[in-house]
């Protein structure tokens, strides 16, 4: 089932990223690496 409403406001997520208060899963980092993306690329 597709979710139509977000859990958090986008502005809150962006503020957390700007403050460096995000963590990624191993799977997310592996997938980004396979795409040639670094951690900073994942956040932009």
Automatic annotation (TrEMBL):
Known Gene3D superfamilies for this protein? 3.30.2310.40
Q: Which InterPro entries match?
A: MqsR_sf, MqsR_toxin
The processes (GO biological process) annotated in the record are: negative regulation of translation; quorum sensing; single-species biofilm formation
Mind telling me what this protein is named?
Answer: Uncharacterized protein
Organism of origin is mine drainage metagenome
């Amino acid at each position: 089932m597709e979710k139509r409403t977000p859990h958090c406001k986008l502005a809150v997520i962006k503020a957390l990223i700007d403050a460096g208060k995000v963590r990624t899963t191993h799977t997310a980092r592996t997938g980004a690496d396979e795409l040639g993306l670094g951690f900073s690329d994942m956040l932009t």
